[in-house]
Design brief:
- This protein is of the alpha/beta class.
- Helices cover 54% and strands 9% of the residues.
- The chain has helices at 4-23, 26-31, 53-70, 127-130, 148-159, 177-191, 202-214, 218-226, 243-258, 279-285, 298-311, 318-327, 332-348, 356-362, 364-374, 378-388, 393-397, 403-419, 424-430, 435-451, 453-468, and strands at residues 37-42, 45-49, 80-84, 167-170, 197-201, 230-234, 262-267, 289-292.
- It has a 5-stranded parallel β-sheet, with helices on both faces. Strands 1-2-3 form a 3-stranded mixed β-sheet.
- Helix 5 (148-159) packs parallel to helix 6 (177-191), helix 11 crosses helix 12 and helix 18 (403-419) packs across helix 20 (435-451).
- The chain starts with a helix and ends with a helix.
- Mean pLDDT is 84; it is low at 91-130.
- The protein binds adenosine-5'-diphosphate and magnesium ion (MG).
- Magnesium ion binds next to helix 6.
Amino acid sequence: MFNDGKLATELWNVALSRLRNGKVHENIYEQWFVNIVPVRLDGACLVLGVADEFVIEWVDGAYGVDIAEVLCNIAGHDYTYKFEAGHAPEENSGAAVPAADAVPAVEPLPDRKVSRLQVEAPVLERPRSTYVNSTYTFDNFVVGEENRYAYTAARRAVECPGLFNPLYIYGNTGIGKTHLLHAIAHETQKNNPDMVVRYATCEEILNCFVESLKSHQYGSFRSQLRDVDMLLVDDIHVLGSKGQLQEQFFNAFNALYAENKQIVLTSDKRPSEIAGLEARLISRFEQGVTTEIYAPGLEVRIAILRGMQQDFMMRFDDEILEFIASRISSNVRRLRGALMQLLARVSLYPDTPVTVERVESILHSVFEEEFSSQQITVDEIQKKVAEYFNLHVSDLLSNKRPKSIAEPRMVAMYLARKLTTSSFPQIGSAFGRNHATIMNAWNKVPELCSQDEELRRAVSLLERQLKSQ
Ligand code: ADP
Ligand code: MG
């Protein structure tokens, strides 16, 4: 009998040789697959170790189906797999090289290692909090009008730590917030290797907090948030409604702030829009620089694709890159995913020309997904607005006149006009009104917003939420 580790290695070797025989292009194999480490078998599930989330995103996105397929029917068994981040490939390790009869060994690429942040205490020492993604740097962040301010502020946090404190970057999903946060970590570590930089997602901090309470290691948790020179917290909106953790975070924040230690936070919302966030934290978060990051424009999206294809040693015509970038505008993660999918498919048939028609058919479902993510309906708007103001959709459709109903109703009409392609008469009929009422709301809401900050925030939050759902 093999032990689990040995069996995992044997299994993975069989899988690798099957993958290499036709499913995976040589470049891709060398760049990615040789660095995957078989970790163990959990029952019939093979656990595969990779450096970080980025590798998971790419390999699983582009080759998940193939990996699942080659793990079927090995010595009469069907195996499944899952990835685990935090396993840097061992140098000269033979673990990921297929069995001798299959293929010659391949050198792992040296530049794919993730750098490690300084984390001494145990509680936060989990793979995802101790590593930053080595591919997220300032150098490969493409800057345009939509993200320039956030980029410059992030650079400033590295050059003059404590000047913008905290730096709070918010915006929709998939448009570079985490990338910038990792870039800050990298650059700071590069320039000041002695600085203790802590990066963690808010979710990780929450988990560590809960664990520290269970294991009576609370002191260690506390010191990990405080004994740092720079604290970078991703997705801070997770803090909303987590009362106990908010208390801890408030204290840590104050301690760091008092010592002029740089704090950078990212979120999908402004501080004041995070439901259940205590007022004292809102005001702390807003006391530095708060900046919104927007989805990048076409030129930037094309440049991102160009950068990516260089990384993957592939080259498509400009026409192809422009085509993809023009079809996916709201989310860079989706844009990257599309190119990865294309690379994976095209690398299998390198001799077939890559035409716009072929790309259209390969990426059909990604384009559909993008399209439907952008199509907002009047129904959805009514539902969302009613929910936000604690009303029923029927209130919005009624003739009730109190301000608490009339104002949300106008907001819904305004957003329906702004976010859908429906005409004034079409929206009118969706509200049981005529087109003049909708036109009136269209003109009136910006006016009301200019006099009422709370309403302005509500409208802007609703708009962002609707666009990102
Ligand atoms: P968010 O944290 O805002 O959800 P991420 O930072 O995870 O988004 O970005 C999603 C993907 O898009 C990442 O792979 C990131 O590297 C890439 N990306 C986003 N914006 C840019 C940019 N301006 N230049 C290069 N890559 C980008
Ligand atoms: Mg993120």
